[in-house]
Amino acid sequence: MSRSQALLLFLVLVVGGGLAIGYITLPGEWYAGLVKPSFNPPNWIFAPVWTVLYILIAIAGWRVWDYGLTRPQQFWWAQLALNFLWSPTFFGFQQMGLALIVIVLLLIAIIGFIKTTWDSERISALLFMPYLLWVAFATLLNASLWMLNAG
């Protein structure tokens, strides 16, 4: 497989998978009825932000695969699995507490990826920085939604 074919495969997997999961688990009436924190962004912001992030995630995954970096690849696959698990857990099963556990684990996997690529593949680490910031914000949002709507 050529490098460009591999990159395309990573993009299709990550962007396509992320958008498909987002489409399947649209927020819906349940989410609309939740009490939201004051810093809750408008719904329209999520699709463009996640599309950009998924492109960055795919490129970073392709780079560590291309360089044959085993430990970062393990963190990369872990974060992707946790990322794809969060929406069905939160929106599909409406389990905000369990989704909070998933997103904290996702945050840990992202940090692990950054730490294991920082010295050997800095570009991949930097590609994950916006993702880290967004997921940290999403973790705060998930926790706030859970606390405001528990009971």
From TrEMBL:
Gene3D superfamilies listed in its UniProt record: TspO/MBR protein (1.20.1260.100)
Major localization class: membrane
PANTHER family xrefs: PERIPHERAL-TYPE BENZODIAZEPINE RECEPTOR (PTHR10057), TRANSLOCATOR PROTEIN (PTHR10057:SF0)
Transmembrane intervals: 44-62, 74-91, 97-114, 126-148
Similarity annotation: Belongs to the TspO/BZRP family.
UniProt-listed GO biological process terms: tetrapyrrole metabolic process
Protein name: Sensor histidine kinase
Any one GO MF annotation of this record: kinase activity
Keywords annotated in UniProt: Kinase, Membrane, Transferase, Transmembrane, Transmembrane helix
GO CC term, one of those recorded: membrane
Superkingdom of the organism of origin: Bacteria
Protein species of origin: Phyllobacterium zundukense
InterPro entries cross-referenced by the UniProt entry: TspO/MBR-related_sf (IPR038330), TspO_MBR (IPR004307)
Membrane topology: Multi-pass membrane protein
UniProt subcellular location: Membrane
